[in-house]
Design a protein that fits this description.
Layout lengths: L1 H35 L3 E14 L3 E15 L11 H6 L2 E3 L1
Parallel strand pairs: 1-3
Antiparallel strand pairs: 1-2
C-alpha cells in the first residue's frame, strides 16, 4: 500500500510540475505575441437566449452573430478565452 501511495504522490507531483511549466511557457509565448500585436484573434459565434416559461418549459431565441475576441494560446490569457476553444464552441447561450 505504501508503494502505491508513493507512486501516486510522484505522479501527482510530475503532473503538477508539467502543468505549471506548460502554463508559464504558454504565457511567455503569449507575451511575445502581445509585444508584436498578434496575441489576439476574433471568431464569429452565434448567440442564443434561453428564457424560462411556465410549466418548466424553455424558449430559445436566436440573437444573431457576434465577434468574440480570443487569445491565441493554449490557456486563457488577458481576460479572453483561448481561440482553439472558441472555434470549437461557436454557439453561445445566455
Amino acid at each position: 500500500m505504501k508503494r502505491f501511495l508513493n507512486i501516486l504522490e510522484t505522479a501527482a507531483k510530475i503532473l503538477l510540475v508539467t502543468a505549471v511549466v506548460m502554463w508559464v511557457g504558454d504565457w511567455a509565448v503569449f507575451r511575445m505575441r502581445a509585444a508584436r500585436g498578434t496575441a489576439f484573434d476574433s471568431v464569429q459565434v452565434e448567440e442564443f437566449l434561453t428564457t424560462a416559461l411556465k410549466g418548466n418549459k424553455q424558449e430559445y431565441d436566436y440573437m444573431g452573430t457576434a465577434q468574440v475576441t480570443c487569445a491565441r494560446a493554449l490557456f486563457p490569457h488577458g481576460g479572453a478565452p483561448a481561440c482553439w476553444w472558441v472555434r470549437r464552441h461557436r454557439t453561445e447561450w445566455e
